[in-house]
Amino acid sequence: MDESNEKSSTPGRDAGVPKAVVNRLSLYLRELEHLLRGGQQTTSSHQLGRVLGFTDAQVRKDLAYFGHFGHPGIGYRCDELVAAIRRILGTDQPWTVAIVGVGNLGRALLGYRGFSERGFRIVAAFDTDASKVGSQIEGVEVFHVDRLAEVARAHRLRLGVIAVPAAAAQHAADQLVAHGIEGILNFAPVTLSLPDHVRRVGVDLAIELEQLTFAVANRLGGE
Amino acid sequence: MDESNEKSSTPGRDAGVPKAVVNRLSLYLRELEHLLRGGQQTTSSHQLGRVLGFTDAQVRKDLAYFGHFGHPGIGYRCDELVAAIRRILGTDQPWTVAIVGVGNLGRALLGYRGFSERGFRIVAAFDTDASKVGSQIEGVEVFHVDRLAEVARAHRLRLGVIAVPAAAAQHAADQLVAHGIEGILNFAPVTLSLPDHVRRVGVDLAIELEQLTFAVANRLGGE
DNA sequence: TAGATTGTTAATCGATTAACAATC
DNA sequence: TAGATTGTTAATCGATTAACAATC
């Protein structure tokens, strides 16, 4: 929503793929991994759609944007489709990530297991607070923001996560951009101004609650 | 997308309002508050659209779903529009929230200032870990999940936030639902199965990074 | 073969944009 | 009055769904 939750595609070089489709791809992937853990070998557009609340036609259409992954009469082999979606999303290869801001939220993100499970490696954290700089949190070293250039180069950093207070977010973003970061996941409740070549996803925790509130108050479909 | 970030409306009793519109409403609100802090009295659909990356027509159309908030020739008075959007979203009145799960993420959420700034009051936290139960975190008491019924009644709880591990999320959701919670903000990376009358919003942190990854790898519009 | 399920086309539905009269 | 800007209609654009031949 927001930064966070934009709906339609505003492509650059594009591939003709609506953002909503890519979003559902992540959900398919999550569900497929869940099915695999439960020992299920194959699934169908019907099953995936039922669990996630989509029509079977939509599931098939979404996947067909990217290729032929199914087997008529059979369905989709979970492991095949997992591999295919990972390749599409780009998470078949590891991505290095840095987190800027080691407050409550930054620390929680540093300890979040889900990132590594999904192929992301948090290789560095940054802060300006001298009492934090030099420490290790969840096995990740905390650097002063001044050392961004050096660390970004050393790790070939491509993604940055902003977990600083709102007032510091634009400055943090500028520094990330200056050092070649290509994408920013922004948890600060501000609209960042970024050059066109830098991708962004925004998550505003209060806005998520706000959206839930509206859904409850109006008995709307909540997600 | 996902639980998190669904695109189109799947209404219940509905009001004919697409979910994308409600989502943008939150962004307008955030921006208007930012403008007000900067001392700006009025704004226009053109200005709001430019900052947030929408067309002016879309801004006007979104707002027009709910009433006549602008002044032809003048624009929108920021304070008026803020009040109007808060009323629409339901955040002109306080909402009590409980957080289930006091791990890294739960603790970060308990300390997140943005919630109270937006009209949410976290009145209780729950966990099953005896070493946490009875303590206070960020001024919020941690109860054993067994006391959900009692606390929910005492505080007239309507919203719950799930910040437990994936394996425990469905059980946590079931308990919240059993005690009358009307909306769930789910941070666990699972698709919850919920009765129709309960609203939900899902935020999967790894999926957000995954979406960013795709945007970077494909040079797509990032948000 | 009968049953299941895909990939794809055409039809439907919904959301965004452009344009403009009305208003300040 | 001239300039700015809204609210709204009609036109465009895009996304979802239904249907079905092809396949296993």
Sum up the structure in keywords:
homodimer; 223 residues; alpha/beta; Arc Repressor Mutant, subunit A; Rossmann fold; 7-stranded mixed beta sheet; two-stranded antiparallel ribbon; 9 helices; 43% helix; 17% strand; globular; disordered N terminus; DNA-binding
Question: Care to describe what's here?
Answer:
- The structure is a homodimer of 223-residue chains.
- In chain A, 43% of the residues lie in helices and 17% in strands.
- The first copy, chain A, has helices at residues 19-37, 45-52, 56-64, 78-89, 104-110, 113-117, 148-155, 166-178, 205-218, and strands at residues 42-43, 76-77, 95-100, 120-127, 136-137, 140-144, 159-162, 183-186, 199-202.
- With 223 residues, the first copy, chain A, is of the alpha/beta class.
- The relative contact order of chain A is 0.12.
- Chain A starts with 18 loop residues before the first helix and ends in a 5-residue tail after the last helix.
- Chain A has two domains: 2-89, Arc Repressor Mutant, subunit A; 95-207, 3-Layer(aba) Sandwich (Rossmann fold).
- The longest helix of chain A is centred in the N-terminal third of the chain and has 19 residues, at 19-37.
- In chain A, strand 7, helix 8 and strand 8 (183-186) form a beta-alpha-beta unit.
- A seven-stranded mixed beta sheet of chain A has the order 5-6-4-3-7-8-9, with helices on both faces.
- Chains A and B meet through helix 1, helix 5, helix 6, strand 8 and strand 9 of A and helix 1, helix 5, helix 6, strand 8 and strand 9 of B.
- The first copy, chain A, binds a DNA duplex (24 and 24 nucleotides) through residues 7-9, 18, 20-21, 44-46, 54-58, 60-61, 63-64, 68, 70-76.
